[in-house]
Amino acid sequence: xxxxxxxxxxxxxxxxxxxxxxxxxxxxxxxxxxxxxxxxxxxxxxxxxxxxxxxxxxxxxxxxxxxxxxxxxxxxxxxxxxxxxxxxxxxxxxxxxxxxxxxxxxxxxxxxxxxxxxxxxxxxxxxxxxxxxxxxxxxxxxxxxxxxxxxxxxxxxxxxxxxxxxxxxxxxxxxxxxxxxxxxxxxxxxxxxxxxxxxxxxxxxxxxxxxxxxxxxxxxxxxxxxxxxxxxxxxxxxxxxxxxxxxxxxxxxxxxxxxxxxxxxxxxxxxxxxxxxxxxxxxxxxxxxxxxxxxxxxxxxxxxxxxxxxxxxxxxxxxxxxxxxxxxxxxxxxxxxxxxxxxxxxxxxxxxxxxxxxxxxxxx
Length: 364
Prior knowledge:
The chain is α/β, with parallel strands linked by helices and 364 residues long. Among the domains are: 127-163; 169-363, Maf protein, CATH 3.90.950.10. It is 39% helix and 12% strand. It is built from 13 helices and eight strands. It has helices at residues 3-6, 97-103, 106-112, 116-122, 127-136, 141-160, 165-168, 183-197, 219-236, 289-298, 314-322, 329-334, 338-363, and strands at residues 175-178, 201-204, 215-216, 246-257, 260-271, 276-281, 285-287, 309-310. The strands form two sheets. Strands 1, 2, 4, 5, 6 and 7 form a six-stranded mixed β-sheet that branches. A two-stranded antiparallel sheet has the order 3-8. The longest helix is centred in the last third of the chain and has 26 residues, at 338-363. The radius of gyration is 58 Å and the shape is elongated. This is Non-canonical purine NTP phosphatase/PRRC1 domain-containing protein.
């Protein structure tokens, strides 16, 4: 074997074998799609023969206005749904004041237009007119509102200036005199009678008592001193007749039990024309036995009114002990001023007097 034969023989590349080829080349062309459109012409649809005819729009009807009198009602007007062309314009003739006066009589006005007082009878359910009628009457809601407003104004005025209270409530039919010029006595009596009677004129007149001791002890001594003050006022004031009531306030000491002393005020009310005399004592303020013993020791043995009390008032002794004014010792001792004590008693006195006046008026 030759050297060339010994060389390795390189095989030839394989030839392509005819086969199905690639995938796209193996797909068959699409077949023809079916045609559903026919070649015959479509017949036109017949026109509708029985269509509804258009409804004609009615022309607006002008309403006929008929004026009827009471005697002849005349034909009734028919209702028309159409809106007249003269909408917004007056369809009835406008009468002048002269025509209205000539065509309407007082009788027709009375029958056709009821007044407010008759509304409640004609319209039983008209609560508004009933409310208005009750509101303007005496004691109605408007009257109460006015009274409330007046009371509020008076309260504001008296709060700003307490001395205005006696001027706002002064007047009326009651004129009362207090047998004293001290404010601690006159002021509570004025307030009490003005509260009970609404309005009252209360004035104070100075009066002295010289029939009892300076400090009365016991109810009898206080009553005698109060009567003396009333008599003094009537004797010095010629303008005070028996029909004008007079009130006297007298402070006194009262021993309720052994060595239990109280300071009280006796109020005596007198009106001779009606035969009225009222007596009322205030709430008591406790007084220490030592203070009473000091007043007794300070009274001379030859004191002319020793049987009715002491020559030294208990107020001066208590004021010196408490280091206050002699008119403020009750408040310093118990917290209740003498004015409040007299005020409560005076209100009871005014209430009793008002009841007696009512009984006297009923009997006459």
